[in-house]
Amino acid sequence: xxxxxxxxxxxxxxxxxxxxxxxxxxxxxxxxxxxxxxxxxxxxxxxxxxxxxxxxxxxxxxxxxxxxxxxxxxxxxxxxxxxxxxxxxxxxxxxxxxxxxxxxxxxxxxxxxxxxxxxxxxxxxxxxxxxxxxxxxxxxxxxxxxxxxxxxxxxxxxxxxxxxxxxxxxxxxxxxxxxxxxxxxxxxxxxxxxxxxxxxxxxxxxxxxxxxxxxxxxxxxxxxxxxxxxxxxxxxxxxxxxxxxxxxxxxxxxxxxxxxxxxxxxxxxxxxxxxxxxxxxxxxxxxxxxxxxxxxxxxxxxxxxxxxxxxxxxxxxxxxxxxxxxxxxxxxxxxxxxxxxxxxxxxxxxxxxxxxxxxxxxxxxxxxxxxxxxxxxxxxxxxxxxxxxxxxxxxxxx
Amino acid sequence: xxxxxxxxxxxxxxxxxxxxxxxxxxxxxxxxxxxxxxxxxxxxxxxxxxxxxxxxxxxxxxxxxxxxxxxxxxxxxxxxxxxxxxxxxxxxxxxxxxxxxxxxxxxxxxxxxxxxxxxxxxxxxxxxxxxxxxxxxxxxxxxxxxxxxxxxxxxxxxxxxxxxxxxxxxxxxxxxxxxxxxxxxxxxxxxxxxxxxxxxxxxxxxxxxxxxxxxxxxxxxxxxxxxxxxxxxxxxxxxxxxxxxxxxxxxxxxxxxxxxxxxxxxxxxxxxxxxxxxxxxxxxxxxxxxxxxxxxxxxxxxxxxxxxxxxxxxxxxxxxxxxxxxxxxxxxxxxxxxxxxxxxxxxxxxxxxxxxxxxxxxxxxxxxxxxxxxxxxxxxxxxxxxxxxxxxxxxxxx
Amino acid sequence: xxxxxxxxxxxxxxxxxxxxxxxxxxxxxxxxxxxxxxxxxxxxxxxxxxxxxxxxxxxxxxxxxxxxxxxxxxxxxxxxxxxxxxxxxxxxxxxxxxxxxxxxxxxxxxxxxxxxxxxxxxxxxxxxxxxxxxxxxxxxxxxxxxxxxxxxxxxxxxxxxxxxxxxxxxxxxxxxxxxxxxxxxxxxxxxxxxxxxxxxxxxxxxxxxxxxxxxxxxxxxxxxxxxxxxxxxxxxxxxxxxxxxxxxxxxxxxxxxxxxxxxxxxxxxxxxxxxxxxxxxxxxxxxxxxxxxxxxxxxxxxxxxxxxxxxxxxxxxxxxxxxxxxxxxxxxxxxxxxxxxxxxxxxxxxxxxxxxxxxxxxxxxxxxxxxxxxxxxxxxxxxxxxxxxxxxxxxxxx
Amino acid sequence: xxxxxxxxxxxxxxxxxxxxxxxxxxxxxxxxxxxxxxxxxxxxxxxxxxxxxxxxxxxxxxxxxxxxxxxxxxxxxxxxxxxxxxxxxxxxxxxxxxxxxxxxxxxxxxxxxxxxxxxxxxxxxxxxxxxxxxxxxxxxxxxxxxxxxxxxxxxxxxxxxxxxxxxxxxxxxxxxxxxxxxxxxxxxxxxxxxxxxxxxxxxxxxxxxxxxxxxxxxxxxxxxxxxxxxxxxxxxxxxxxxxxxxxxxxxxxxxxxxxxxxxxxxxxxxxxxxxxxxxxxxxxxxxxxxxxxxxxxxxxxxxxxxxxxxxxxxxxxxxxxxxxxxxxxxxxxxxxxxxxxxxxxxxxxxxxxxxxxxxxxxxxxxxxxxxxxxxxxxxxxxxxxxxxxxxxxxxxxx
Lengths: 398, 398, 398, 398
Hints:
4 copies of one chain form a homotetramer. Helix content of chain A is 42%, strand content 15%. The first copy, chain A, has 14 helices and 14 strands. The first copy, chain A, has helices spanning 19-25, 35-51, 65-76, 90-102, 119-128, 152-162, 212-220, 230-237, 248-264, 266-287, 314-325, 351-367, 375-384, 388-391, and strands at 8-10, 58-62, 82-86, 105-109, 134-140, 142-143, 148-149, 167-171, 190-194, 205-210, 290-291, 303-307, 327-329, 340-344.
């Protein structure tokens, strides 16, 4: 296949890596035990804490996001512990799989893949758990497979009201640095993230942010673990170092990505994502297609999953768009295969990249003979409407 | 200004440099007198000739395109020689200025900046010139300031029919490797080009392609010249070298750009430009705006200059689009200042980049309260119409 | 600190990343579930197998080498299993630590950090183990902390002769693609490696190569594991994919690194390392200093650890060299702190880079008033001696 | 040829481009008529003036250094004008050639290619020229073909004492930003330079720095010129722009190179060059070879030309070193072909890069059976001698 001009990578992550980040990584490796690295390491760890408004330790792994999921469980729990996981979609199913592989007892609260985690369900389950069997509640903040954002603050409120001591573990892989997330305010115990979404890096780094309570739990955890063990990492981090060879060039990229976020301002980053997401939703409505997320307040600002009409294969649409317009869209995962396609609108992204994306989708749908309205026109109208300035300030899902 | 996501550089050159070309240039410099450079130099010179279907020497200057313009005159003519230059726009005016600065006698055939060079006018002037006072005819193949393409083959036919011995000098700066150009078939004597348009490189290289007749003329030329002198360059080129330090990294980029053109196929490159240009014109028509080029057969496949309605300042539109959507459009040059803006749709460019461009223009026009129709919709329709496949094969302007 | 000119990164890994590899990684990320990635994934997996002359599966982790160590144990063993680990230096101690953290029973055969794994000791221990308590023998092929290479083939012979069924797990982190290693011939069960040494990539990838016997063992292993689990990776690899988001840009780098190794030829790569290592040893001898590795047949071809005279602090020498000459050398790890410094001479490395390295060390030693002879002269003599051609073919340590 | 590790580019320019400069150039092109470019252009022009301690205009050409030579003559003189050029070597011969090609009357003061421009000769010639026939004196500050630095200040004194009104044109191509050069203090009228030496950029930019007197002369100059004309460039520069498309990516590189020079400090840059040059000369003396430059006070701090013994072909040595050690050295130019080779020790360069270079030369000489002493040892001794700190402060050649 001949690529002419730019490929449009509009899957919901990995996202488009900004040139500045790529350039920051295109450089010689340095000694990870030398003074220059120590400065770099400290700068990044401080920068991460500042950006994410937390005073908790940030743990950087050479791993995918999935590795960081495992780390969150393996550091805090013990074999046989019971955890509550909300079924939100494909990635909650992966959490369940990880939990079960590790030997945890998983209570999987069923969901229809179109709604976020239910605070009411959580309340019922946790209220019934007077003996505090549940050691952790795991929730995916933003389900990358469905485009549904769960209300973490509401869950937290329920847990607070019940005084339930379970750890709150939040998968913020596709929300961090894109959708408002308040680690300390929401008293999240372990936040799980990766480098390749809102942080605008290539894949290669997994992250945990760890509360004091989680740290305390890690001392009692009886899981055999070494690579993902927090303690040795936190110890080495104090001097800016890592117990194992860190991904040096990714670290240079991460420093630059943090600079980009700081320059734009995190509030502006969130507002930009909200605005571009709303424009996307305007397009879907005008196309006459269905957004998978049924509750408007839960629709994700980082991706939109679109249900194709009966009789249409979403993968045929995706393939058509890839072959004709050199744009990658997200596949329907798990039971959504062929039923939805997903548009990623997060990371280093702007109005015209979104416009191109929507044009590509609109043309692809027409080439596949899906009868649709003019979504592009609706999105452009939204983006130029006087009121859209107001829409920039997205209400936090609290 | 915070750039988030990609800037859209949609001026009619410099064009977007493909990542592969940037990467080819991001490397250590090598000895320009060593064996590795000799191989590189020969490979590029052969590749240029092949791509441009010429057996004539290709001269590579470290210069802007303007330097290559001067070179074409300084190598072939002598002070006081009379040359015929067609007024096609701002860049023909620069040719006139260069000619006059060099001390040539310029006959500047007037034009209205909306039409190409007139073969009829050429015929009249050259027929009247029985004593062969005109030593050269200079024509801009594709006027970058107006988006008008002149019919070189027709001019050549006139010159042939009259048996006029003047040299034919063609400025192909914004047409080469984008619009069909036939150096040998059209018997062009000096082709003038630069690196930063269809060749998809950054600015930094100027080019001449030189016929045997032009080479012969250069021996009689009495202009003082050194840097731009063809003879010493051609001599050194035989071994793959250059008489002066060549722009080494640009050469690596040029090798990669030639590979890209070869992989896509020059015919496909032309068809792609024709198709994207036609989509742009569909948009302009649907907007209800005027294309500066009045004759549909002369409308450029590499850029479109759009006339803004009376009372509107084109520069306000451009500035709005730059500030709101981070897209650069071409300014109205010379007497067109404020009256037109120009969309570049050439080089490393594809459907979705064009879609983004047109969306940006449409939103910018609306934000400036210019009453317009739905140009984007028209363009998307064209790009997905079954017949648009046929339109891919653009008729050569002959 | 002002860097002028190039930094010399002469730690024994991460090694200097070749420009071609850096450039291959400096590019847009692609969809890790799309057809282009599938081709890339398959190409890399096939290339790895070919380069390492194995028909066994190669497992690619987003991890440091340490992660791959853990993976080798967690996939093949069960809690409480007894493993035999040879004390060869700091990295064997890390193996012990990993083993103990995972809950394995470790028999740690003591060593003096100056010799390789003792086949005689192995024979004694395994012969005494008639009930086959030892489930695995773990050996570091090339101890990065000491510069000692162990004779894997000899160990294998012992195991074969005794018919002991323990798995043979080999840490080839600082030997792979630099020192002759024969996975299939030596019947290694799990090879553990990373990206940042002989593979010339930045850190970020950990590797396992897995024998059929190890694969069989993995089915019986009772360690809780998810991220490092071989089965799901091998399954996804069949289509060129990965179960979790792979480190896309590292994959492009890996493809280029494999191309570099193929172009040079693995035999030539080994010979080059042997030759540059021998030159280094000539220098150390001429300096009158002691090589930590006592047995000449075990001296590593990828790094040399040099013992400083009594009363000298090796870290003062390292710091002097870093500050005066912008060269990073390897620190003395664990109990060797302050007693040795280590020169890395592996990866993308050549005669003049070695010459610079040795000059830097010689000047640093003199600035620290260590009385030494002319090591540089000896190395240069070796490198230009007619006989040094013969020395290029290093005898395999078998 | 397989490159393993880094190529050593030790010709006296183009020099090794620092990674930071390469990375600054590896980025998207921007609109050269837009507001972002205006800021860049102004910043660079101001930075150049500051670095070169001049209040005169700096002219940036897309050209090789040779183009900037032509520009200096074509802007200030008229056909038939007489100029005085000192024969210092191959590059003074190119100046003569350019002058003659342009139609100037050249008085070429003979030299033996081993000495700098003779102030005594200058005095004799200019004193005899009471009618001020000489319109310009052209001198190469640092002859790249011979490694001889001429005393510009002394020449200036002679001209001052005689009150001779000729323009002083200085070729600082291989001295600028490496050897002390004082544009305003020495009252140089036109300084000629290129990007690829001390400025550490790839080739592609030529420079003039222009005194008020030269600017005045340019108004009377009758050479036909357009591309190289100062007036239109200076006019456009006032707004940060250029009359023709500037080499955008080179401009980003230039900004970064100026930052590098500023960070190190120009005095330190000069001292570093002096120190590394002196180390090189120590090596040549110890080898028992002859430095081409006969007067120690004129030996260049940016390159050293070394005379090979009778019966030895310098090109065989160079080829041997290139093929065996992947290092490029400077060829003997013009009448020095085969008699000398040249070591470039300028630009982004440090002690260990020099050590590698000298080791490569020493090994190459030995492989070619040239009987030599231990130059490397002498250089290392110099570089670590307590007194070498003093040598860092090179006496300005005044």
